[in-house]
Amino acid sequence: MPLVVKSMIVSILFVLVFVVVVRWRAASREANVEAQFPATGQFVEVDGTKIHLKVIGQGPDLVLIHGANGSLRDFTFSLVDRLKADFRVIALDRPGLGWSDRPSGYGSVFNVAAEPPALQARLLQAASDKIGVKNPIVIGHSYGGTIALAWALERPDQTAGLVLLGAATNPWEGELGWLYRVNSSLFGSLITIPLITALTPRGTIAKALGEIFTPQASPDGYLDHISAHMTLRRSTQRANAQQVNTLKPYIIQMHTRYSSLTLPVEILHGTQDIIVPLEVHAKPLSQQIPDAVLTRLEGVGHMPHHADPEATLSAIHRVAARAGLR
């Protein structure tokens, strides 16, 4: 057998072994983290799609929608406990993240399509309907702010008000980073995502989390509470990359409709938010919605509900009062 052929066979065998090892390692890490951080709420099925949500407290309904690459655990770290005495709080995992499924037609290894914000909003609304949610205040952080706006646009007369925290709401210049483009592609689904799942160390996750909180530090215990390795599951990475990478065209469509919203809206945005800049998103939004109030949080980054929880609570109670719920 020629040496070249032998070399090719050895190379192919090496690649195959490497692929098997990576996939085994990825599956093992996923199984471990899912066993360590099981679902904490209940599941509601909507047309065959399981949506995970957690209900705490009593009072007017208050819906919490988390941001990109997150889960409802972001809110249960501290915010929910501070709201449950005054509201019935419903924290939801968005489709494909946390413990929620993606709807039919999305989520396979070979399918790179992403759920539009309106579809995500309708799924969360249908799940909320099944537990009796009526006329809620809807809170959305970051990407979740887009879904909160989609919720209001879908049901303008059945939404009491909005609180938007560092929310992505308006078109921006340029494109997102290369990793979103790669991971939302077929190549990313097959190659880079399994590698990330299998090989990413805890220190890298902690560093990425620090960048999200900057210039503040993440709270003590936050990394462990949110079960950050859950975000590294292959299915979660695919959902997040595909949803984020396709968001801009939907926002371009949505932002022309904001002026039709007449409900009370409170916008909280940090002046040092470098992920979703205030001048690009919050400032124009405050002029697009007739009954919107913008609160600029000086020196705060992309996590206002952690950096300034008192301002967040005040905004929620203001919306409740403006909506006649208090």
Topology:
Blueprint: H1 3-36, E1 42-46, E2 49-56, E3 61-65, H2 73-76, H3 79-83, E4 88-92, H4 117-130, E5 137-141, H5 143-154, E6 161-165, H6 178-183, H7 186-199, H8 202-213, H9 222-225, H10 234-245, H11 247-254, E7 265-270, H12 282-288, E8 292-297, H13 304-307, H14 309-322
Parallel strand pairs: 3-4, 3-5, 5-6, 6-7, 7-8
Antiparallel strand pairs: 1-2, 2-4
Helix pairs in contact: 1-7, 4-5
Instruction: Flag low-confidence runs.
Output: none
Q: Structural class of the helix and strand makeup?
A: alpha/beta
Percentage of residues in DSSP E strands: 5-15%
What's the number of extended β-strand segments? Answer: 8
Q: CA-to-CA gap between the ends?
A: 83 Å
- What integer is the average pLDDT? 93
